[in-house]
Amino acid sequence: MSLNAIRMRCWWVLPVWVALVWALLAGSAQAAPTTLRVLTWSGYADPDLVAVFEKRHGVRVEVTIVGSDDVLRAKLADTKAPAFDVVAANTVEIARFVELQQLAPLPMADIPNAARQLPRFRQLDAIAGITRQGLVYALPYTYSEMGLIYDRQQLPEPPDSVAVLWDPRWQGRVLAFDGSSHAFSLAALHQGMSPFRVDPAQWGAVSRDLVALRRNLLSFYNLPEESLDLFRRHGVAVMHANYGQQQLKLFRDAGLDVGYVVPREGALAWLDCWAISSRSRQQTLAAQWINYMLELQVGRELTRRQGLANTLEEPEALAGDAVKGPILWLEPVGDAERRQRLWQRIVSGDRPERF
To answer: Around Cβ 31, how many Cβ atoms within 10 Å?
Structure first.
């Protein structure tokens, strides 16, 4: 073969090899699945349910679990970390995120399962915090009241007041949730005040009451599983159940003989929703996640596994005399930042006379 012929063949082969390399690189890029980042609570996105969504849409789901609203806020606001696409939060936090422009309006056409929710959850304008100027920013997913869980062996009669958490008879055998908003609301209820608005002259009294609570506790907790471990290992008598009947089911499934009650002062109650982060670059996929979470089978699994109500079927009512006071749906709290600052001092061990 002549030199010219060899050169001509090389010039013909080179573009083919370049095209093949580019095709391989493009195929490799396409093979890498899209990652959907979900910020949520324990029990809301179990691995087997996540796997179904991943297979259905050919994506990878990265789930981050939080244990308090304070952590949720910090993670959603962290612009140095990769953006979350979907977030689960209660209606009060949703309203805050909307105000801060941290959420995107939902593409409702991509979430047809919303039409299958119970009527009261389809009346979106009637649910404070999730709509604004005609746009929908979140859809309800689950809800519960925050009652008291107690050991039937140590307390044969159900406690009828939140004051049991401060009772010195149970010192070292009490648990409470580690969160600034709910802690101040709980102490306000104990003091006979509005749980969502603390009078400026009463901040010291409420803070000192929380110091007294801290001194009566075994520990604060964040996650349901953590509370179960502490309750079982340390012979806890009573606890404030931030996760409500979810914790009750968890404890009973573990074989503990516990009761549950809404005290006479009432119990805060939360409604958690799914929303899409304004930083998400894959909002259609995020909407598909929300639509999947509103499938009846997913909702039933949430109820079966976690003991939490879903928004597609009516839950079983609290039985007997377990409800001694009102259910108090969460509202935006006054001076949330002040609550958080004071809470950090309280849990770190500050003395009551300093408040």
So the answer is: 7
Distance between CA atoms of 87 and 72, rounded to whole angstroms? 9
CATH 2.60.40.1180 applies to domain 35-141+271-310: no
pLDDT digits (tens, 9 = 90+) for 305-344: 888 889 999 766 466 678 889 888 888 888 889 999 999 9
Q: Determine the Cα–Cα distance for residues 235 and 258; give it in Å rounded to an integer.
A: 12
237 vs 105, 173, 185, 251, 310, CA distance in Å? 45, 5, 22, 13, 29
Is 50 exceeded by the pLDDT of residue 21? Answer: no
Cα dihedral sign for 48, 52, 55, 57?
negative
Residues forming CATH 3.40.190.10 domain(s) in the chain: 35-141+271-310, 145-269+317-354
pLDDT of residue 31: 56
C-alpha pair distances (Å), 263 with each of 158, 159, 163, 189:
9, 7, 9, 10
d(CA 228, CA 216): 19
Say if domain 145-269+317-354 classifies as CATH 3.40.190.10.
Answer: yes
Long-range contacts of range 320-324, CB-CB < 8 Å, 24 or more positions apart? Answer: 321/158, 322/147, 322/158, 322/259, 322/260, 322/261, 322/262, 323/261, 323/262, 324/158, 324/160, 324/261, 324/262, 324/263, 324/264
* Residue with token string 């010219």: 4
Coarse DSSP helix, strand, coil percentages of the chain, rounded to the nearest 5 percent? 45, 20, 35
